[in-house]
Amino acid sequence: MSADTAIAQVKELFAAQYGADPTGVWAAPGRVNLIGEHVDYAGGVCLPFALNQCTYVAASPREDERIRICSVLPGDSEPVATECAAGSLGPGDIEGWVGYALGPIWALREAGTLPSDPRGYDLAIVSEVPLGSGLSSSAAIECAVGSAVVELELGSESLADPSVRSELIAAAIRAENDVVGASTGGLDQSIAMSGQSGHALKIDFLHGETMQVPFDLDGHGLAILIIDSKAPHSLADGQYASRRGVIDAVAASAEAPTLRAIGDADAIEAAARAWAEKEGYDLDVALRRVRHVSSEIDRTLHAIELLRNDDFEGFGADMYASHASLRDDYEVTVPQLDLIVDTAREFGAIGARMTGGGFGGSAIALVRREDVEPLSQRIAQAFEDAHFDPPAFLAATPSEGARRVA
Ligand code: GLA
């Protein structure tokens, strides 16, 4: 679906549901993370880019204190629609997909970015970001609705203000943590708001710094292929929280705000050892978990330097090493993701790894442009041979973050 088609569709949906044209349409993108996985909540460094696949929100303010919201989920022809009191959007008030959509409004009011009195809105949503594919459809919906409401309340130029964007990132994270109950780390919301076309974003969570890193795939005859493993994936199901729980507990036991703040890899290992012994936690598992985080942060810093020198071969080697660490030390891959990466390596792809939270979802491969088709065929065949459900393939183009589109 092109952006124009999606915008026309979301306007039509709005008009059909509410009998009027929307005040405007806002979009926020899905993402892939090139490297730096499961380190955001540890104060680490990530390198995501925003996709051109977006979630679109058509929105208008209302005179009363009701919120009406509807969405056509991918694969469905009929919209799902619901409404609620604009004053009841906090933890325990709303759940499911509505929590992702409306939680940010609550968090923006709590933070004082939006007026605290409950305003009503009509909202219609259409998404091109596939759900459950590890491409962060959740941050896309949070940031699209958040952007819409911020501009409806604070004026049409308010997204141009970097401090408003930062407040939106924080609100989207808070909504996901407190309203939805997924303890995710902030990578997804940051890139959904801050993506720039032709760039990946270095995010350093310890120092609170970001830097745009040129990522000119076309200019180098390269492509990033996304392979959706179709293995079911959910971050609210406890697996993600259990990985994060170990990292947070080791940091807390060393009285550090994050794992990385403890110090170098040796200091982190010593802290994990002490924590595991005190808690009676499996020592080997604890050491492997923190080793993933330390090594992934080093690898990501190394990979970013390579990329800045156009060393794509070296960058690809770091991608493979990242996958191995996520598979062996962090244990967040699934057989489908490992098969994709093994197949890509045998094929001769420059690099490949799972992307996002894992436990299903997608992998990415860095390839020469002419290899996109043959590699896709090779992976599809490998899935058939292994009796896995067929994977899906998407092209990934580094694109813009959240913005008004109509
Ligand atoms: C999910 C979370 C992010 C991050 C990644 C793993 O996408 O939402 O915060 O932790 O997993 O890197």
From TrEMBL:
Protein EC: 2.7.1.6
The entry's keywords: ATP-binding, Carbohydrate metabolism, Galactose metabolism, Kinase, Magnesium, Metal-binding, Nucleotide-binding, Transferase
Pfam family, one: GHMP_kinases_N
Sequence ranges assigned to domain Galactokinase N-terminal in this UniProt record: 12-61
Single annotated GO MF: ATP binding
Keyword ATP-binding attributed: yes
First-tier enzyme category under EC: transferase
GHMP kinase C-terminal domain boundaries: 303-384
GO cellular component, one term: cytosol
Domain called GHMP kinase N-terminal: residue spans: 105-195
PROSITE patterns from the UniProt entry: GALACTOKINASE, GHMP_KINASES_ATP
One of the protein's GO biological processes: galactose metabolic process
Family: Belongs to the GHMP kinase family. GalK subfamily.
Protein name per the record: Galactokinase
Species this protein is from: Corynebacterium uropygiale
Gene: galK
